[in-house]
Specification:
Strand content: under 5%
Strand order of the largest sheet: 2-3-4-1-5
Shape: elongated
Radius of gyration: 33 Å
Distance between the termini: 64 Å
Largest sheet: 5 strands, parallel
Number of helices: 46
Helix content: 55-70%
Structural class: mainly alpha
């Protein structure tokens, strides 16, 4: 029985009980070394004998071995591997070095998040046969890829009979478990400390002795037991200063080590170096001429336990005491002996041991470490790969090769999501002497730019990409760097720089050989000229067939969003339709790290075409969640801005303002001016829909000023049609007429139907006479676009003018169409405006239907939409990186909220445009 841990055991028992009933729980048990985390885990497992166990312990000597802890943890569940989605099973098999497909042939196999999703699927499949306890002790000592995969899975558990318990030393591991429920374990109180000491010693202790020891150790159980009988410690207690417990424990264990023989200490050092496997320890001892049986002396002294073919140190601090107490020469000899004892094929372990055995440059060891780095990359263990390449570089004698390996280390660190470490490695590379220009220099600049762009430092990214273009070894490489630079200027809203870059790309066109460089170059030219208000549509249209024809582009996660830029910029019914289909085909294979950008562009397309606002809402929510998890601030800011824009159209004031405030703060901090423009447009149009016309005028006028300040002359960014409407409502007719005229001139220069339709609507609003022809012209242009919301806005404006002109019968035709479209899309506030106008014509208007889908959370909506497409529960789980039972949990809640009982009813409710059936099916 544990002493003084009733509250902690009760907290653990609660999550265990919930898991038995089918509600997942995740609990991180944190505290300093020796505070009793392992004892609590052991006690919990002792009381959960009916649960199936997946258990592992972080081992410091395996910290650089990719997925060492995850393999230890999941080994009992590997029999269920065939029961999870094939792509995930292949990715996990590759990560764990199991027999299976080549890593290069596995879609998403090099995405660390896909491996986390696979671990989630496997654990949940294993739990289908009964409740499962996933227990990991010393998580802070485990390899980083394993930790990432486990925590990715743990954070997505909801409705499975699974409990995850992890022991983490504090403060070393506090950041690892951020966002997870934490049970902080502190020292025992005075009475519990007395009971523990007396249980161990078998005799009563004086009050003074217990009080002094408790004060000095702050009640740390291991310290109470180990230090209470240590003469050196007892004599120092009178100082009344608290002990630094871990160092004091290491010192105490060191004094205990002095009591065993020298050969026993040598064998313990080999065990500390080799990890727990007795076979390797025995072989390494044999290399050194050490009698491995001397470990029995350490076992008798309570320093280690020999069980099931492993040597387990009583506590990680014992291992630390053994290793730190040995001489440098002895440690190096032990590492070399371990390397010699390992099979030649075990390159990874041999490389790491040899790297600890040498202190000088050694190309043989450096090459082995580089090979270990390659293996780690193939298994998506990028943090381990970064360490391998970094260590390899430190042992590389030749400068050029050292720079190459440092670059590979930085690349791996960035892929692992550690931008700060990547930049540090790049700085180290720059400090190594080089020839005037190396191919790697361009890659270094591009890597720095990628880190800057994703983390929100777009201006820095732009400067770096231009520098990369200046150093590019070929016209194709220069064009690609310049295209990426133009993409950065789009977010920055920097039309002047975009135009200059476009001129450079245009001059390169005759020398560009590759399809991808030509396609992205044309797209970049078109984007830049569009932003500057000087054409651009022709270049974008010319890029479309090249984008469609490039098979590599659709399988490059970093470039996938480029496929949607064409339809987003053209905004018509013909350009980019096939590209939308390509994105839908391949987005499922994109890893989680690439998904925020893809989902953001897909959602923007869906919300601006009117094809599926419900899907757009769900995709924005998923993009925001994933961008937050992966630290992608640019995608997060743009996704929030896009969501605010959709909320404005849909008439959700609270959601619009919340998304807008968060987006505006990010955009202002990162100079993401296009995001600022979207937010201002969203809030201004929301105020207009709410009837707060002066506030609408103020917001929209501020947006006009922002666009002028940035020289952003893309007519599609202009809020002029909405501003014209607002100005008329506050009796500023002359200002409205001027705004409408200016907008029409700019739309005519662009020549695209979306802008032309909006221009004619604005002119129709201010026209004194003959407004019919202008509105009919606007509707004709709308026919060539996919934006049904804008069409409905034009019909509402046309109907309103007809009614005010006394032409009620003609007005009803336009207003009915507007009402139906707003109703189908779910534009609640604009639907109310259309209904008010229609009633004013004398027509009776049905009440708005109960929008039952609005009761769903974003996660429930996302699950509903995926299942309504005909996917199975397991397919939906794989697509959304959730467990099948979590999908079923959300589906049950959806059924209850919607009053339905089958997937066919759900599919009917969501068909054909997600809103045409939004009235409550139970309503009379």
């Amino acid at each position: 029985m544990l002493v003084g841990r009733q509250a902690e055991q009760q907290a653990i028992d609660q999550v265990l009980a919930a898991a038995r009933l089918g509600t997942s729980g995740v609990l991180a048990i944190t505290g300093e070394a020796g505070v009793g985390k392992t004892a609590l885990l052991d006690a919990a497992m002792g009381g959960a004998t009916e649960m199936r166990m997946l258990r592992a312990t972080g081992i410091e000597s395996e910290r650089e071995i990719p997925f060492a802890m995850l393999l230890q943890l999941l080994r009992p569940a590997l029999g269920a591997l065939e029961g999870i989605p094939t792509a995930q099973a292949d990715a996990l098999a590759t990560a764990l070095a199991l027999p299976g497909p080549d890593a290069a042939a596995v879609p998403g196999g090099r995405d660390r998040f896909t491996i986390g999703a696979a671990a989630l699927s496997l654990i949940c499949r294993f739990a289908e046969d009964g409740p499962v306890a996933v227990v990991v002790d010393d998580l802070h000592l485990a390899d980083t890829p394993s930790v990432d995969a486990l925590l990715f899975a743990a954070r997505r558990l909801a409705a499975d009979p699974v409990v995850v318990l992890v022991g983490v030393r504090s403060p070393e591991g506090d950041e690892l478990v951020a966002g997870v429920q934490v049970l902080r374990v502190s020292g025992l109180d005075l009475e519990a400390a007395r009971l523990l000491i007396e249980q161990e010693s078998g005799r009563a202790e004086s009050d003074d002795h217990v009080r002094l020891l408790h004060r000095a150790t702050a009640g740390n159980p291991l310290a109470l037991l180990e230090l209470g009988s240590d003469r050196v410690v007892v004599e120092s207690l009178e100082t009344e200063f608290p002990l630094r417990v871990p160092p004091a424990l290491v010192a105490a264990f060191g004094r205990r080590l002095e009591r065993v023989g020298a050969e026993c200490r040598a064998a313990l050092l080999v065990a500390a170096v080799c990890g727990g496997g007795i076979r390797l320890i025995t072989d390494a001892c044999e290399v050194l001429g050490i009698d491995v049986s001397r470990l029995g002396e350490a076992e008798d002294g309570g320093l280690v336990a020999l069980t099931q073919g492993r040597v387990e140190f009583r506590h990680p601090l014992v291992r630390s005491a053994v290793y730190s107490g040995a001489s440098v020469q002895a440690r190096r000899a032990a590492h070399r002996a371990a390397a010699d004892a390992l099979p030649t094929a075990d390159v990874d372990r041999r490389a790491w041991h040899l790297s600890e055995a040498v202190w000088y440059a050694d190309e043989h060891v450096a090459a082995l470490l580089a090979q270990a780095g390659d293996h780690a990359v193939a298994r998506a263990a990028y943090s381990v790969a970064a360490s391998a390449f970094e260590r390899s570089a430190s042992l590389t004698p030749e400068a050029h090769e050292r720079r190459t390996r440092l670059l590979r280390a930085a690349d791996a660190a960035w892929t692992a999501g550690d931008g700060a470490r990547s930049l540090t490695l790049l700085d180290q590379r720059s400090a190594v002497g080089s020839s005037p220009v190396e191919d790697g220099d361009v890659r270094e600049i591009e890597l720095r730019a990628s880190i800057a762009a994703r983390s929100g430092s777009l201006r820095e990214a732009l400067e770096l990409l231009v520098s990369a273009a200046d150093r590019a070894p070929s016209a194709d490489a220069e064009a690609l760097a310049l295209a990426d630079a133009v993409h950065a200027t789009f977010y920055l809203g920097d039309a002047r720089t975009a135009a200059a870059l476009a001129d450079r790309i245009d001059a390169l066109q005759p020398r560009i050989a590759g399809t991808r460089a030509r396609a992205l170059g044309l797209m970049a030219i078109g984007m830049a000229r569009t932003l500057a208000g000087s054409g651009g549509a022709a270049e974008i249209r010319a890029a479309v067939p090249l984008l469609e024809a490039d098979p590599e582009l659709r399988h490059d996660p970093r470039r996938l969003s480029w496929l949607l830029l064409a339809p987003l910029f053209l905004r018509d019914a013909t350009g980019g339709g096939h590209l939308r289909g390509l994105v839908e085909e391949v987005r499922g294979a994109a890893g989680v790290g690439a998904l925020p950008a893809v989902l953001f562009h897909v959602a923007r397309d869906q919300s601006t075409t009117g094809a599926s606002w419900a899907r757009a809402e769900a995709n924005y929510a998923e993009a925001i969640r994933l961008a937050t998890e992966t630290g992608q601030e640019t995608e997060l800011a743009m996704s929030l801005a896009g969501a605010a824009w959709l909320d404005s159209r849909a008439g959700r004031p609270a959601a619009c303002r919340a998304h807008a405030a968060e987006a505006r703060a990010l955009c202002a901090a990162r100079d993401i001016h296009v995001g600022e423009a979207w937010v201002s447009h969203a809030v201004g149009d929301l105020e207009l829909s709410l009837g707060r016309t002066q506030a609408a005028v103020d917001h929209l006028s501020e947006l006009v000023a922002l666009l002028q300040r940035l020289s952003l002359d893309d007519v599609d960014l202009s809020p002029a049609p909405e501003l014209v409407d607002a100005l008329l409502r506050v009796n500023r007719r002359s200002d409205a007429a001027a705004a409408a005229s200016d907008y029409h001139e700019r739309a005519a220069r662009k020549g695209q139907p979306w802008a032309l339709a909006r221009a004619d609507r604005a002119r129709g609003l201010v026209a004194e006479v003959d407004f019919d022809s202008l509105f009919h012209s606007a509707l004709a242009s709308h026919e060539a676009t996919l934006d049904r919301f804008e069409t409905a806005r034009t019909r509402l404006a046309f109907g309103s003018r007809l009614r005010r002109a006394g032409r009620r019968v003609d007005a009803r035709t336009q207003l009915r169409e507007a009402l139906d479209t707003f109703d189908e899309l779910g534009a609640a506030l604009w639907r109310d405006h259309a209904a008010t106008e229609l009633r004013a014509t004398g027509e009776r208007v049905r009440a708005a239907g109960a929008s039952v889908l609005d009761a769903l959370t974003p996660q429930e909506l996302q699950v509903s939409l995926v299942l309504a497409e005909g996917r199975t529960t397991r397919e939906a789980a794989a697509a959304l990186f959730l467990s099948p039972k979590t999908i079923e949990y959300h589906l049950r809640k959806v059924y209850t909220k919607l009053g339905i009982g089958s997937r066919s009813e759900l599919a009917d409710l969501l068909a054909p445009t997600d809103r045409t059936q939004r009235e409550d099916p139970r309503a009379p």
